[in-house]
UniProtKB/TrEMBL annotation:
<keyword id="KW-0805">Transcription regulation</keyword>
<dbReference type="InterPro" id="IPR036271">
    <property type="entry name" value="Tet_transcr_reg_TetR-rel_C_sf"/>
</dbReference>
<keyword id="KW-0238">DNA-binding</keyword>
<dbReference type="Pfam" id="PF21597">
    <property type="entry name" value="TetR_C_43"/>
</dbReference>
<keyword id="KW-0804">Transcription</keyword>
<dbReference type="InterPro" id="IPR001647">
    <property type="entry name" value="HTH_TetR"/>
</dbReference>
<dbReference type="InterPro" id="IPR009057">
    <property type="entry name" value="Homeodomain-like_sf"/>
</dbReference>
<dbReference type="Pfam" id="PF00440">
    <property type="entry name" value="TetR_N"/>
</dbReference>
<protein>
    <submittedName>
        <fullName>TetR/AcrR family transcriptional regulator</fullName>
    </submittedName>
</protein>
<feature type="DNA-binding region" description="H-T-H motif">
    <location>
        <begin position="41"/>
        <end position="60"/>
    </location>
</feature>
<dbReference type="InterPro" id="IPR049445">
    <property type="entry name" value="TetR_SbtR-like_C"/>
</dbReference>
<dbReference type="InterPro" id="IPR050109">
    <property type="entry name" value="HTH-type_TetR-like_transc_reg"/>
</dbReference>
<feature type="domain" description="HTH tetR-type">
    <location>
        <begin position="19"/>
        <end position="78"/>
    </location>
</feature>
């Protein structure tokens, strides 16, 4: 007598409320990491997210897991901004400008202090997100150069370092008071990247490899 083989069970999808809770946790963590630095207690993050401590730990068993999710989510939004800029059919430099201002609002540079020596910088999720951003921004810059609108002696690292440094507030409760200067100073920086170039830049252009070395 043969026994019927049970049908394989379908993987259960997370409930909508569980997904919303996870997104609230990531959003709250990003805000608090920017404002107060990397050591914000999980219970404070849970309070801002409007969930219980157990919900935070159920989604993110340790700080590294939460940091990785926050950084990846910021990089994903930055990549989407680059995709939208690439889809524009107008002035190539203006599209690059709009991307740069959107990237500045993401404040990914403010998250860098959280990446400690114990953090896995080469985690596959981070590597995938990083490569996606690099490729998209390089395409944006190449298009602006081909149109004669972006100076030829700048590379990916020059743009992203400028965006990062100008949008990175000092950690602390008063850090958001500098927000009103970010886009003004970023536009001054971007104006210096326009072609034709008025001066010769010292040193060499900062490439992706240069950022990682």
């Amino acid at each position: 007598m043969q026994t019927a083989t049970p049908a394989p069970r379908k993987a259960t999808r997370p409930r909508a409320d569980a997904l919303r809770n996870r997104e609230r946790i990531v959003t709250a963590a990003r805000e608090m990491f920017v404002e107060f630095g990397p050591d914000v207690p999980f219970d404070e993050i849970a309070r801002r997210a409007g969930v219980g401590n157990a919900t935070v730990y159920r989604n993110f068993p340790d700080r590294d897991a939460l940091v990785r999710e926050v950084v990846c989510s910021v990089m994903d939004r930055t990549a989407r901004a680059a995709e939208l800029a690439l889809a524009e059919t107008g002035d190539a430099f203006e599209a690059l400008e709009r991307f740069a201002h959107t990237a500045a609002d993401e404040r990914i540079s403010a998250l860098c202090p959280m990446i400690s020596s114990t953090f896995d910088r080469n985690h596959p999720d981070l590597e995938d997100a990083r490569r996606r951003v690099e490729n998209l921004v390089a395409r944006l810059m190449d298009r602006a150069k081909a149109a004669g609108r972006l100076r030829a002696d700048v590379e990916y690292g020059d743009l992203m370092m400028g965006v990062a440094q100008l949008s990175r507030p000092p950690a602390g409760t008063g850090c958001m008071s500098a927000d009103r200067f970010v886009h003004r100073h970023l536009q001054l920086f971007l104006d210096g990247m326009r072609a034709p170039a008025r001066t010769v830049l010292p040193g060499a252009a900062v490439t992706v490899e240069g950022l990682r070395s």
